[in-house]
Known about the structure:
This protein is α/β, with parallel strands linked by helices. The chain has helices spanning 4-12, 31-36, 53-60, 79-92, 124-130, 133-150, 182-198, 235-242, 270-280, 295-298, 303-313, 332-344, 350-364, and strands spanning 39-42, 66-69, 99-102, 104-106, 109-110, 154-155, 202-208, 223-224, 248-251, 254-255, 286-291, 317-320.
Amino acid sequence: MSKIFPFLFLVLSTTSVHAQQVVETEDSVSLDVMIGQMILTGIGDFSYLPDDAEIIDDIKSGKVGGIILFEKNINSERPKIQLKRTIDSLKSAASIPLFISIDEEGGRVNRLKPKYGFPITRQAGELGAMNNLDTTAFYANNTASTLNEYGINVNYAPDVDVAINPENPVIAKLGRSYSEDPKIVARHAQKVIDVHRENNVLTVLKHFPGHGSSRNDSHFGVADVSDTWQFAELMPYKCLLDSGRVDAIMTAHIVNEHLDPNKLPATLSPYIITNILRGVLNYQGVVFTDDMQMHAISKNFGFEESIKMAIKAGVDVMLFCNNVPGNERRTPSQIHDIISNYVAQGEISEDRIRASYNRIMQLKSKLK
Length: 368
């Protein structure tokens, strides 16, 4: 076992940790429905029409529990009308409420751009440098109120990565971290979460256990932070868990051999998800993966194998965004069949699926 793990337990277990209660669900819920709630997908390749029969059929049949929207899904002559029509169509097809999700951090990671008539945003790095919580709240409200208006109920934000490496190509260089100081990161993240809650939008912290020290972009390959990761990268999570402000957490596709001696990406690592996040930090809520089609996963572990590994590691919702160049489009039906087969073969237990389903339904009970 890594030498750092006992140290993490000693330090992080010294104060109380907020734990979310799991909703009890009826044993009569079908396996197909439970599996479907674990699948979240992007829509189409380059565009989406709300009457697309394939995705609507998958939603109606319970093979998908959530949708992620990108700029390609609203890039039209009437973007606001299209967005509302799309979301209404998706929601009306679902018997269980859908996660209608989006990456709307602000700045460079921003789908609802001002050129389409949506409010202006600011990137986290800019807000952290100003270090004015009222300013952060103002821009968070611009975003959260817009999401609520159009029926988007999950935002993959705030980014709580700590800007350890100023040359990081996917975090610091894009202005996605509030600061190199974890206390500043936590303070601004708290404000963003509070404002989203006021607007009935769930938030997802990312990228656990910390992407801020990486030298590489996991969209394009493995990002190994074994020599650069710092303990401080866990502190925003600890602070926000203690404050009761965590709706959900997203994993990173980073490798850290000090946290996982098998050198698996966090998304596929039982050490990092089950032992550290759920064990040491006592987090009992929903774990989302980052996009399973990013090359750090898809080019190294394969489509079917990575699904099995992620579930066995302890994740609850897997994202297949159909948005990374060089990857084949994956449908919810394909993913559902793969998981069903693993259960039938005894490689994944039904109890493991039910545990994720219970956590997901607990989170969905907060949707309004």
